[in-house]
Structure formats: C-alpha cells, structure tokens
Amino acid sequence: MFPVIVHATDASIYDLEFTGSPAKKMRFKLISQDSGAKMTVRIKYPSAESRAIVKNNEIVEMNAWNETSRGYGPVMQTTCGENRYIGVSNILEFYITAGCELFIQPRDAIQTMVRMEWTMNEFFDNGGTTSFIDKVAGSLGIHASTIKVVGVYTGSVVVDYSIEPDKTTG
To answer: Going by C-beta distance under 8 Å and a sequence separation of 6 or more, which residues neighbour residue 150?
Structure first.
C-alpha cells in the first residue's frame, strides 16, 4: 500500500497507470480535511479480467447499461462506489468521496457478446432474451439464473450478457 496525494475537486478524474501488473486486490480510501473532496478514478488494465468494486463488504453493481453508447452508463459522480467498466479499452472507472473506503477485487464472472444473423423481430418472435438465456444455460449445463442479459441491439442481433456463479449453491 502506498499513499498518493491528489487535489480532489468537483469533476476531478485521475487516471492510474501501472508500470507493472496491477494487484488483483486493491484498497482505496480518500482521506481529506475537506469533507467535500471527491473524484473519479480510472484504471487501465492490461487484460479484460472482470473486477468488482466492494463497499461495506457488498459488491457495488456497475451503472446500468446504456444502449446509445453500447456500454455501461457514465459515472455521474453521485454516490461513492458508483462504477462502470469500459470494454475494449479495459478501463475500470469509479467514484470516491472523502472518508469512503472502496476495494477492487476479481469478480467471478464471464462477460461476453454474441452476434446473430437475425433481425430484431425474428429474435423476439422466437422467445427473445428468455429463450436466449435458456439455450445458453442448456448448452453450458448451468442454471438460467446465472445468466444476465445486459443489452440487445441491432447489428444483425447483438446480445451482451454475463454469466456469474450460482449463489444458491455452496
């Protein structure tokens, strides 16, 4: 662990770049004499491994999917722990406020996208996301509840989805 001195003001964005491999687990705490100190931190990773932001021992879910940008919604700097992952660039972005402590840890999930040679009407006429989830679960031999469709959009039909471990089994 090493301290870093920053000037954390409204709309501050700090890019962290590592000269070596970044740690799998990290802790961030913004300590300031100014109780209004806040900033967004962006970490560019060398790989697409899935990561989670944890606050008070709870995973903070990423911002909602944004169909226009075809990615997770931007960090609006509203709540400590608000976060998103910028695919292709492999950037984890999160918001932190004075006194808030956040952890980054590996996330046990697979994030993927599939493109199908269908129209949107054909996709939804054939069961849409429910049918898609059932087929993926059946072919992988996993429970359908572990699959989350993040977005469906045109380009033939593109489905972004993630697969997470079944939390009901040990």
So the answer is: 65, 160, 161, 162
Tell which CATH architecture fits domain 13-106: Sandwich (2.60)
Express each pLDDT in 69-120 by its tens digit.
777 888 999 999 999 988 778 889 999 999 999 999 988 777 777 888 888 8
Q: What pTM did the predictor assign?
A: 0.72
**Any residues with CB less than 8 A from the CB of 152 and at least 6 apart, and which?**
120, 123, 128, 129, 158, 159, 160
What residues does each domain of the chain span? 13-106, 110-163
- Computed from CA positions of residues 99, 92, 8, 20, in that sequence, does the dihedral angle turn out positive or negative? positive
**CB-based burial label for 86 (10 Å; 0-12, 13-18, 19+):** middle
* Amino acid (1-letter code) at residue 67: E
Helical H segments across 49-143, by residue range: 120-125, 128-140
Residue 77: C-alpha distances to residues 43, 96, 134, 136, 157 (Å): 16, 8, 37, 36, 32
Q: How far apart are CA 86 and CA 63, in angstroms?
A: 11
The b-or-e profile of 37-56 (16+ CB within 10 A means b, else e) is bbbbbbbebeeeeebbbbbe
